[in-house]
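seq/struct pair 1
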Amino acid sequence: MNSDPEMFVRNRSSSEERGQEEPILQTENIQRITRKRCYQTRHLFAFMGFLGFANVYAMRVNLSVAIVAMVNSTALGNGSSISNNTCPAPSTPSSHTTDGPFNWNERDQGLILGAFFYGYVVTQLPGGRLAEIWGGKWLYGIGILVTAIFTMLTPLAAKTSVSLLTAVRVLEGLGEGVTYPAMHAMLSKWTPPNERSKMGSRVYSGSQFGTVIALPLSGYLADEFGWESVFYVFGVLSLIWFLAWAFLISDSPDTHPTISREERDYIKRSIGSARSSVTLSVPWKSILTSVPVWALVVTHMAQNWGFYTLLTELPTYMKNILHFDIKANAFISALPYLLMWLFALFISFLTDFTIDHNLLSRNSARKVFNSVAFMLPGLFLILAGYSGCNVNTTIVFLTLAGGINGAHYSGFMSTHLDMSPNFAGTLLGITNGFANIMGFLAPAFTGYIINGHQDLSHWQLVFFVAALVYFAGNVVFVVLGSTKEQPWNHNPSNPGDRNQADYEPISTSDMESD
């Protein structure tokens, strides 16, 4: 086997002269050598991260379905305006359709659904920074554990008062707020540059998988065992996941007890000098004055407005406009996220393929696939709003709107890692913190528009605004976003930065010995 380092290390200076971001390693050679013996550990990490986000989103979205069974719609229906712009109700309603015990109007429901995000935004930035300093394993795990505990307390809180339920949802948000930044910090240690799209999509698509499972299962549980069971089941599943995470996962390849030497060296040296071997102080001034960072903030905010408009409001739309019972409602509401999960995985492979084979520069690939993720869903949301009472057409458009949005994991969501592996957790904490303000603004906006007006014209406005936000956010990313490694990724005030060992190429003798 040829041990020439040039087989494995790309010439950084030449790639910089071309103004493109090139993979540090020759992908074909490295993957051929490492595929057989270096697969298990980092992909076990990705799988457990995937399951973690599946639990996170199951606990986040179960209320969107359960609230349909919790609210006394008959009592509230008398206060809603009736217009000719409504869809006719089915002549034979479901025998299982029953009203819940709570007289919460649309504004109350918007407050309850959005309360989670008041806590969620608070722990984003601290979560990212703490993960960079102390490691993400326990931060990620305990964040989900806290959410599980308060999820199981939700029925008690709901029966006590709206205020207590709102407080419990805020506390759940505080727990979940650390998960994305902590995972981004861990991905910066575990993911070779040529696998960023695939690894990121595998991990974060757990959120779509969790949604796909949680929505129909929540509908079934609420219908068969009562709405309280929804919160108990998902809370217990998350507790089981936490125990597995605690025993199987480590903060980085360096601290994992069973990772092979080949895989550890492959990961570290493929990341190379882009990530420092020491913990760096955050260059706050450089970050907060960076135009590409603020482009990411705006793009992330646009993503979350559209995403949470669907995530929190689709079950309500299905019930009040299209007149689905809770089981059918939950199943249909899950379709966009099933397609999003599958589409995200497909696009991630396509993105890395175009970059690895120099079909597109990294910067161009991120922007092309981000445009797919934003522009097409925006168009389909508008079409869904104007589909009238054609149920099948509306479902198709809403499914496509949610599904194609899965390409955003290969778009702006991977750009934090491209720009700054050393501060990926901090960057995601910043952008996700701002973005999840949309988590309570979008439901509140929908509640304000829809309150007392359950008709097509008001929902058309909700979908149209979400589409405009998608369009505007993508324009900002295409014009101002950048995947170039930022100069402040290596803070010059840190004398230990750029450890010389980070520059060493992978040795074939290291790969061939265990």
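seq/struct pair 2
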Amino acid sequence: MTDTQITGGQALIEALMANGADLAFGVPGESYLAALDALYDAEKQLKFITCRHEASAANMAEAYGKMTGRPGICFVTRGPGATHATIGLHTAFQDSTPMIMLIGQVAADQVEREAFQEVDYRRFLSEVTKWTAEINDASRVAEYVGRAFRVATSGRPGPVALALPEDMLRALTDRQACLPYRPAKAHPGAEDMAELKRLMDGAKRPLLMLGGSGWDAASVKQVEAFAEKNNLPVTVSFRCQDRFDNNHPNYIGDMGIGANPALVKRMQDADVLLVLGPRLGEMTTGGYERLSVPVPKQTLIHIHQGAEELGRVYHPTLGINATPTTIAPMLADMVFENSATWADSTKADRAAFEAWTTPNDNPGAVKLASLYEYMRDALPEDAILCNGAGNYAAWLHRFYRYRTFPGQLAPTSGAMGYGVPAAIAAKIIAPERTVIACAGDGCFMMSSMELATAVRYQANVIFLVFNNGMLGTIRMHQERNYPYRISGTELTNPDFVKFAESFGAFATRVEKTEDFAPALKAAQAAGKPALIEIMVDPEAIGPTATLTGLRNK
């Protein structure tokens, strides 16, 4: 380097910081050594979190995007590193989360020779990114990085991947100008809002559904005021329960997997369905069966930040291309003609929600619904709860109540192994907040090595590991479709308490319901990462199902 020139690696780090990047997650690799060297000089402005697996690094970056609305940054090496990390791209794509993955790549003189760990990422990642490119000229680094931030955050947000040939990162280039990105957000027009009001003025049994990405705390509050002013019942899409205060009298439950049958019927009986944010995907629509395809029986007003999503599956009566943050202020003061007549129906819907979320029993000495009922009161309102995939999450989604945005980090992609790294990222981003990671024994073991990351960075997450010795979701489907023919779903686990303690974390075990409250208090007071192993009877396969019951059917 000279006084006027820098390396491509340094240009990369300068461009990231110019666009507001302050945190990056990754696993170091020799393919991007020049970028790591540049990070050395920038560690006060752009902190690098060393993870123990690329899938975890990608999930942490995705969680950062969910938490902040800004692109999460992930560094991975070429070949195995990138393929490990692809799960995070898939989750970011399906969850509409802004994210940028930076991938080391072979040098230009080795391309198309199947060099060591060589992959053409433009072909390989095309299905799980909004845009994938390779920077072959160091003088264009700022151009590519600026475009990556804009693509990741504009329209329907999502992931971008940039491949970084190692010779490009070492090459010298002049310093490059870079204007910080501003997302291009769609705004509703006056005609859109007038037609929305006309359709809602004529409604007799409307329902408001919230979800998707692109929210902030202010827009959540504005929509809460809008719903309250109009006596609107509010549901949320799959794993988007923090888009509305669950203790609010207008909240009536989540339209996810295992949704309240009364709530599903309420949606089907609505005459106007006002959908703000979600794509109306498979999980929310129960395999596209809860609403008729392609034309719902309900008058559908669909508001989405990606124009390509409007009418993709369901043809709306009114499609509005807008983000939650641009339309929420316009809804906050809107009052509909018949809104006074909706109050009694909304009270009845809320009563059905209260009944559905009253803790029920399950086989075994640990009553899982009661644990979440306790956490409703014991955790701060702004607690963040994270989970991956598995039947254990059914109790979380049904019996816990989210009260603050952002307060839920969960993959609508259904990815196992997500909750642990997501929780670590959340605690690093917001160390003052209580962060809980919920995981089944199968889900936890897919990212359990990140206990080392939590301890290293003093990310004092409380990890709840629900141990039933099996892959519960797949076992449920087996017993439902092939009773007694157990294949591949039984697990052999470590002693989770000793396992966590070996990393330097606090750990304890819960074997009956009354053990949980003191265990949680001890974890909160530990002053370091803490793990609570919760022993679950295998018969307790779901909030309303048992293994024996499934077999008998």
